[in-house]
Amino acid sequence: MRKxxxxxxxxxxxxxxxxxxLATLFFIYQASKVGFDYDFEKFYPTSxxxxxxxxxxxxxxQSDNDFLLISVENKSGVFDLKFLKKVDRFTHELSKLExxxxxxxxxxxxxxxxxxxxxxxxLIDFENVDLKRDSIRIYSKPELxxxxxAKDGKSICIFVKHNDFLARKNxxxxxxxxxxxxxxxxxxxxxxxxxxIGQKYYIKKMMGEMLFFVALSAILIVIFLFVAFRSIWGxxxxxxxxxxxxxxxxxxxxxxxxPINIILTVLPSVMFVVSMSDTIHLVSRYLxxxxxxxxxxxxxxxxxxxxxxxxxxxxxxxxxxFFSLVFVRVEPIQVFGVVMGVGVLIAFVLTFVTLPAxxxxxxxxxxVTKKKQGHFWKKRLAKWFIIVLKRKRLIVxxxxxxxxxxxxxxxxxxxxxxxxxxLDESDPxxxxxxxxxxxxxxVRPVELAITIKSDSLDVWDKDVLRTIDTVQTYxxxxxxxxxxxxxxxxxxxxxxxMYSGLPEYFTLPTQRTKWRDIKRIITAPSAQVLYRxxxxxxxxxxxxxxxxxxxxxxxxxxxxxxxxxYLETKTMHGAIDYQITGTAHLVDKNLSYLSTSLIKGLxxxxxxxxxxxxxxxxxxxxxxxxxxxxxxxxVVIAGVMGFFGVELKISTAIIFxxxxxxxxxxxxxxxGKFKFELMKGRTKIYALKRSYLTTGKAMILxxxxxxxxxxxxxxxxxxxxxxxxxxxxITLFVALIADLTxxxxxxxxxxxxxxxxx
Length: 758
Prior knowledge:
Layout: H1 6-31, H2 49-60, E1 67-73, H3 81-95, E2 100-104, E3 110-114, E4 118-122, H4 131-139, E5 155-162, H5 168-185, E6 189-194, H6 195-229, H7 232-255, H8 267-290, H9 296-323, H10 331-361, H11 366-370, H12 376-390, H13 392-410, H14 428-439, E7 444-452, H15 462-479, E8 482-486, H16 487-497, H17 512-522, H18 528-531, E9 541-548, H19 553-567, E10 576-581, H20 583-617, H21 620-643, H22 650-653, H23 655-679, H24 684-711, H25 719-740, H26 742-750
Antiparallel strand pairs: 1-5, 1-6, 2-5, 3-4, 7-9, 7-10, 8-9
């Protein structure tokens, strides 16, 4: 028979479950409308002057990232008439597709000759076929090699300029048509790279991985719950919270029009582990209470009373770990932090609202209520506790050694970033990217903005152009830039055309009349579209646009530093200003903020956790005791990254703040139980033993479940997600060992409970 209060609780439980069911149905409807997002621009640094400059610069000219490079290969060599005719037809059909602005290849490009009149000749003359002659002519033009034709002569690159900022739906349709055309012509090998194909590829993978992680998480949930509680009851009860939390979170995202980005593909796995942590602690304590309490309601009250506050604190600290990611100046990471922080709080609310109501109507498995005495875990934990008491000095020494070794690894961490480093080398898109990167001057866009600051000069001043020519020569020879468009190149091409295309005239002119004629040709009304891609309407700003191989942030940062030093000598006494910009440059810029962002985020998390522990215990020693076991795992994981060459980048930077927020949970549960026992008047050693035996099982179970959940991310084809899962697993495992060994030792050595006045 239940004690007084049972009827009131029954009414509360019934209304609660009905309300939760209705809310869940609403969020299921909302979740069905959630979208996916892969917007490359959202990885630019926020509130940054260089980002603002880039957008203004792009408005003057055009996007540097809205194009496709299509490489078509002929293994026997490209100067084959049948192959070239196929390329010509393919190029022509591409140009007719919707959303295409222009298509350029050696089959539709002309060489102009300017004398008394202007004439032209196709680079490939299909009417008067002489491929040997045409190949010699093409290879004599430096602007074509590794731009339109590979140096080894095995493939041709077709440059496709499509509408700027093409929407996902339109870009998907365009890519389908390009693929159909490619299949129609059956080249030996066709490779396509560009922003919109990356967008389509990533979104497809994101959706696939989301479904995969949901399915795998569901399987793991069943396995671990059965191992933990050995009953159908133990499997079903937590599912309401775990699945409900995921549905509520995705539904909330949809309600606020927040799509799932590439980083949020880990949402199912992370929600699985944070929800499991809360439910395992509550269910485990409830089952223990059933062994000692006379009624179900009393067992519910005891479980909620003993783990409720600790679980609230762990939810707060975990959410703080996620929320602190707002300090990283990258929008997708900020969104990830806010979404997951909210998800943690949703999981806590559902755990302590849903489970007590379910416990009341479905009290528990019979094996629990029949066994009133000790069990497997208490015997094992009692032995481990004795070992810890006997090996205090050894534990402290080993902890210091581990920290020392990890610090050595920490100083070996490198900060680096590549455009496609989230994909494995075996990935087809990565292989296509690497081929074009190696054979066509690179696919990493580089923009140099050149502004004439003197009122008396403009971009057509001869001294200005000669100075810019030396800069472009440096870019070509020292920086390794494959120049795709610049006013200097345009002038040289026109000058060469005035001398029958002779290669030695690919220079700036020396004669005044030639300067005048060239300016007239390039600025003519018929050439305005091309001219406005090189010079803005004021005649004060011009661009040098090109690509370099994807060498990584470390190398490119050094190259940029050398370039800036060189540019400082080419300002014409302050008359010319230079600024490196472009999409890749802005993503790299984020890396310069990473260290500061990480430190800010971690300091906020550590400070709040320290304040919480300080308020609860009103003891400086306990504040430090609670932090040490949770800072050690962070040092260890930094050491692992350093020793194994895992680079610090946008995708791995979030590991530290997330790991700290989650790892501190077990410490809080342990210390919460320790305080509860002290409040009962227990001695320090007895309270410590009771805490060890009571919370030890839940700590071990939740850590293994958390590790298993994050280990799921090891199946991801995104390397950033892979490292996130594996490194957090290591962190949590180290944190568990620290909590079961070092934490009790620190309490024994340094914590002195205040004696109650009697």
